[in-house]
Design a protein that fits this description.
Length: about 180
């Protein structure tokens, strides 16, 4: 060891050398891992945001496509009725047979009822029933002998499907009997 010391002194004064520490990733300062973690989380958040936007677009596109398919199915159910109506009017214009035309219309009407029945659509019974704002829409209040809030006139029928109101009945509702007017003396 004396030889190593002698060699150092023979070289002259040692230059000013500062030590540089080489650290492994595990030994980095606390700010560096936090910075890396923040950038990783930011990147992940941006990717998740993009995925979510793509998901929303896909769901909207699928919903529109499903709605279109439902509309197509309704049209497929109604088109035969349209064809039958067109044929009935063409035959009536050619033959002028009112009885055959009426019989054809009755068959078409029965087809309509069958379609509604197959779709679980039922007509709301309104006349003589108590007014229910969940299934009826009051257009008029009428004086009548019926008790107050009883439906006395139906302007347009309402329909329900699977217990849900599709279209409320448009009705006239009794406001009860008119008060008797006193005769003036």
């Amino acid at each position: 060891m004396k030889d190593a010391t002698r060699k150092k002194s023979e070289r002259g004064p040692e230059p000013d050398v500062r030590e540089i520490e080489v650290t492994s990733p595990e030994e980095q300062s606390p700010q560096e891992p936090a910075s890396n973690e923040v950038s990783d989380l930011t990147d992940r958040l941006q990717r998740l945001r993009a995925e979510f936007e793509n998901y929303k677009k896909r769901v909207a596109r699928d919903a529109a496509e499903q709605s279109g398919r439902a509309s197509d199915q309704i049209l497929l159910d109604v088109l035969p009725l349209y064809d039958a109506l067109q044929l009935a009017f063409e035959n009536y214009n050619r033959d002028s047979d009112a009885d055959a035309f009426i019989a054809g219309m009755e068959r078409i009407f029965a087809q309509f009822e069958e379609i509604l029945k197959s779709k679980s659509v039922t007509r709301i019974e309104a006349l003589g029933r108590p007014f229910d704002p969940a299934i009826h829409e009051a257009l008029l209040r009428l004086e009548s002998e019926e008790p107050k809030n009883t439906i006395v006139e139906e302007f347009s029928p309402g329909y329900t499907r699977d217990g849900r109101t599709i279209r409320p009945s448009k009705v006239g509702v009794s406001q009860g009997t008119a008060p008797a007017k006193e005769e003036k003396e």
